[in-house]
Design goal:
mainly alpha; 9 helices; single chain; about 45% helix
Length: about 300
Amino acid sequence: MKTILRFLPRGKKSALKVFRKKPISIPSSKLEKLPAQKVGVSIEKLTEKQIELRSKKLGDISHRMKLGKDTPTTHLGEEAIRGEAIANKLAERRFNRSISKYLKQGRKEIAQSIKKMSSNVRGQFKPIKKIPSYKVPDAIRGTGSEVYAKTTKSRVTGKAINPKGMYFIRKPKERFRTITGEPRLVKSPKLKAFIKQKAEQAYKKADLEATKVFIKTKQRFTGRSGLGIYSKRTVAAKPTLDYREKAQQREMTKSWGIDPDARPDFDSDIMTLSSRQQTRRSRQLTVKIGREKKPKRRK
């Protein structure tokens, strides 16, 4: 209202009639609070005619301009793209909310665990007093171009004397002087490691929640499940061999002169064992050899 009155000339404000509506007051006895309702989202099933009309109306021009010429222009493809976009937004929102919650929880856990520690152990988590220092160099230099670096070559060897292309600027007044700053408190290495550990745990929890939201949303809108673009895939997938590939592998091992069904001989080939078994077996062999070499005592 103030913005309208600002542009009216003086003496004309009375001509403008302002009607203010009174707020409606409803008594609390008549108000009924409904419980949280479940929103059911189902996949839209269209007929061929509806799909044709929709595709004509939308057209694939804007689709191809935004997402590229190789994007699917079918009804199912469009629904999949929309569902994935919604799932990405919801997953990102959930991650942002949960990461702050878990970080707060981690800080609280750190404070509680340090409080419960003994005085000797707690001393390792105390801040350290540090005095920053800086040593003045003998000369101030700058980096030149690659051409400058190549031109500065030795006459004897022919190699570049100055490969980085450094050049002299000036000599400082107080050379080799150590300048010390004001002392300040810094986090101890133990506390830094503890904070890092809790932060990693918080990130993993938030990432797991976001991934669950993404999979659930995508499955609801598209009927397909899949991981998001930000989810980590640390475990390498082991490809399962087909029966024909297995038969080919057996034939190959036979051609090498090895029986594919034969079990490994642990006495002759120690490398077939695991690292722990290898160490144990090598110790047994050394003890056995030592006993054989040791001469028997005469009675």
